[in-house]
Amino acid sequence: MLVLFQHPQKGWGVKAAEHIKAGEFVCEYVGELISEAEAQRRAQACPESEAYFMTLNPKKSDVKKVVIDAYTVRNVAAFINFSCAPNLEFTSLTGAHQNGDFPRVGFFAREVCGTPNFATPNCAEDVPHLLPFGSCLHCDPYYSLTGCAFLSQDIQIGTELGYRRDVDDRRGGEQECHCGASLCKGKL
Predict the structure, then answer these.
(1) Cβ contacts of 12 within 8 Å, gap of 6 or more
(2) Is residue 178 a contact partner of residue 9, using CB atoms and an 8 Å limit?
(3) More exposed terminus of the chain, fewer Cβ within 10 Å: N or C?
């Protein structure tokens, strides 16, 4: 279903090797489950490893954060790049064990909103807006859509896969972004 490829600016990336329908499961983000303290220790020892960390915020307030470290133990999902216009959304998965102490994360093909929002300065183009998995962007203050129409936008063969990292962090980071989206923020 997926194929690795080499990108001149981003390094490794992942493309769809077959048609993926909107809302369909794509793959699981696999890695070693570690504590937040261990993640900090590993990031200091090997700064490049931090790019492969996915921090999971627990649903219960008395449970500590867990980090999936996909630096040494990983699958194809570790090579999916970040994007300012992602076509994937990640969500928590419940394993057959039904134990929340061993969280899992899956990537799903996103749905899109068919109504452009010309009132938002960053949204001057007549392009479909990507929807967070299972929700509508008009409810998301980051996008401030005034209305929408759900459309099905499947991922075509050969399309690079990408997801938005740190969804709640709108400030951007230090690393230059090479996603190529028309509305690219410029930094990861």
Answers:
(1) 4, 5, 6, 79
(2) yes
(3) N
